[in-house]
Amino acid sequence: MASKFLSLACIRNENGSSSSRDLSARPHYPSMPKYPKGISIDDHDKNKRKEEEESYSESKSALFCVIGMTCSACAGSVEKAIKRLPGIKEAVVDVLNNRTQVLFYPDFINEETIRETIEDVGFEATLIEEELADRTFQVCRIRIKGMTCTTCSTTVESVLQGVHGVQKAQVALATEEAEIQFDSKIVNQNQLMEAIENTGFEAILISVGEDMSKIHLEVEGVRIDESFRGIEKALWSILGVEDVEIEPILRKVSIAYKPDQTGPRNFIKAIESIENKRFKARIFPGGAGREPHKQEEIRQYKIYFLWSLVFTIPVFLTSMVFMYIPGIKHVLDAKVVNMLTIGELLRWILATPVQFIIGHRFYTGAYKALRHKSANMDVLIALGTNAAYFYSVFSVIRAATSPTFQGTDFFETSAMLISFIILGKYLEVLAKGKTSEAIAKLMDLAPDTAILLALDSEGNVKNEEEIDSRLIQKNDILKIIPGSKVAADGFVVWGQSHVNESMITGESRPVSKRKGDTVIGGTLNENGVLHVQATRVGSESSLSQIVRLVESAQMAKAPVQKFADRISKYFVPLVIILSFCTWLSWFLAGKFHAYPASWIPTSMDSFQLALQFGISVMVIACPCALGLATPTAVMVGTGVGASQGVLIKGGQALESAHKVNCIVFDKTGTLTIGKPVVVNTKFLKRVPDFLELVAATEVNSEHPLAKAIVDYAKKCRGDDENQVWPEAHEFESITGHGVKAIVKGKQILVGNKSFLQNSSISVPADAEEFLAETEELAQTGILVSINEQVVGVLAISDPLKPGAREAISILKSMNIESIMVTGDNWGTAKSIAKEVGIEKVYAEAKPDQKAGKIKELQNSGFIVAMVGDGINDSPALVAADVGMAIGAGTDIAIEAADIVLMKSNLEDVITAIDLSKKTFSRIRLNYIWALGYNILGIPIAAGVLFPSTRFRLPPWVAGAAMAASSVSVVCCSLLLKYYKRPKKLETLEIRGIQVE
User: Fold this and answer.
1) Which of the following CATH numbers is that of domain 137-208: 3.30.70.100, 3.20.20.70, 3.40.50.2300, 2.40.30.110?
2) Which of 319, 333, 525, 955 suits 944 as a labelling partner, its CA being 20 to 30 A distant?
3) Composition of the chain by helix, strand, coil, percent to 5
4) Is pLDDT above 90 for 308?
5) Which positions are annotated as active-site residues?
6) Burial of residue 563 (number of CB atoms within 10 Å: 0-12, 13-18, 19+)
7) pLDDT digits over 223-245, tens only?
8) CA distances (Å), 16 to each of 347, 482, 613, in order?
């Protein structure tokens, strides 16, 4: 945060010396820096054309069935060919399902042209007509105020699921939020909020839609409503605006928009250009999110509790303390009317506001519950306090009308009961606020301000401006100085530095960044100055997606939660019956002298004694503790996981992960780094510029092995980013075999052994021997032929991930079996498995065969976790009991998985399993505490100890105990915040085994 206070007049350059901010000394971009590495000036015109396309037409979606794709290289070829076409907004290729979805502008291109382009690449393509219709499903999040226990949340959930058009509804008691998936053509968010409010709870809309961002602006200078209509009209004219909401009293304008089409600076510009520029717009002050509402709830409970003390303390003193002080006792016992004393009258006056003003929330909550034929905690409190209060009123009125009646009032019981319950709720919301700290911390990672650069037509920096980070738009160029946070997701267009990404990925080591490298918003720039082009802002940013993932995880219910839901249906009615039976038993026992009269305290009779036992039973029972046992532990557990770089998608994943006894690993990108590199070279003949000739041939290929060879050649020649290779003529790629071309007048063939033999080129014995050696080492041998003579062999390997061997060893010590299932050949698979210590290997497996193997293991009695990263792993990730996706893997794999390992380290597989075990043990402990408390507390409150010990639990003490039980369960869950990874993993870190 210190970077915010750095002087704007002086910055520190990369070598540490100070320099003034002379704009003429700013870096010059050899090409427009708003484009990634490799984009030319011609591409600049293409991108400008795309911006024009977006302004002329609405985009359209088309889905194609593409036959013939076998790997990610095929998918890359199809995607690249489509994106080169004019009018293409986005293209996504799914190899697994043989489908390609294209978002395009129909004014510039049509489906048939796209289909022909796919076929030109070499694949068969068919348009899927029936899936062209736009999907109308949306997701909205609504905050629900007033829920007190599981009965409340299940009532709201059942009402929402009964609304026509709602596909799915989840209501979380701990977060007091609902997540609803609905068909926007059938129902809208206002109707959903109305359905919630009809159940008696307050509903506040948080967000609607997954592809929209929302900004709140305050407009100054508005005097009449007509001006707001002009502002609304101006905003709706901007392409990409999805919704505009105006609150004239607050002078607040809320705009929902698509960040890839527009942004908040455009809105401010549009507002300020209206009516001779007399309006001024700025970001609306104050937060929007969960935290302000949580702070308001805490503040309200605090005020309620303090006011209750103002009235309750005098009630307590007059009934419990002053009665033992002779002078004051004489005044309090003085008669007002008949047997009515001053003390009784004072207690009645003081207890009444506590009962009906401070305690009104319990009446309204009980009424709402009973109206929907359910019973919650509010019903118990309302019944208990009403019994004490109205019996006391009856006693006071009878004393005032009778010259002989001497009764005892329980005004202190009702007042103290409400005060202690309010205190308990205050402590509970404080503790619950701590359980969601992970989300608050994630949100705080985004910097408050950013330095926006303005460029001239030649790419020179002409101006710098510090802006609110919420005003950043897509394609902005941002300056990131040392010690400041990266303001948005993007890629580096100028500069070099190291960025600490631990706050997002959990990776402790700073990552080197240079031109072309991607950066994540919220991470910390450590040394050099970076210029970054923003690519994902608002709801599209990595930080927003992680927050959304953690929020969804905290909304999801663990299967064990069903246990509490079942109990909650019968808990409150059962407690009411037990309370009535307790009162009736003690009343009848006293009426028929079943116990000695000496048992009855001198200040009351047998009816009052029975009433105290009945009220105590009613108020000591706590359904809240049961309802909070699971969600609070899941909230803290998923939050801790996020801070460790392990994103757990809810209670289902947590509950399943703690049972895992078998883990299936993919090989490429999971056990290995997933990026082939040249590890050895054997020259059979001396050839000048050998690597230059090979790289010039392979640079035209999209295959991962070709890229490895080109990168190796670059590295050998000094790693020049702008490396220019000789031109290759008559280039031809033979899928699965190799490539050939003519470079500098020489015929170059680069490929496997069969490729050269099919080209009538003999392979020397020493080359054959070297190929055999590479196969034994799980390496791929690539032969190079120049003018029909084999002149060299390149050995390419996908290196094993650091720490993989140790991770497998730790899993074995935990009695968890490790298995490898891969699509690679048997030789490579066995070699890698032997290296990491895996005994069972299944190679040459297709995607459906991987999923079949998972099911086979499950049928054998294993609880299976699958760890993978590729599109072809998606079926297996879904089939497994727990799917774990490597964070650096494909979006499809991450979507299919239950747990995402952000750091791509295999040690985090162990962390995920260990954290799930710790979280689930905490859930068990919470249930033991909540159930044990009620099982022990209710009999004691009913007076089982009274006959032998004369011990009885006053109702106000029972109320305090009930409040304490909920707080205790939440605090028990909060202990998970101090979770530490297994010591064996800490040992690995000390030894320096980390993935770069």
Assistant:
1) 3.30.70.100
2) 319
3) 50, 20, 30
4) yes
5) 666
6) middle
7) 666 677 888 888 888 888 888 88
8) 73, 10, 75
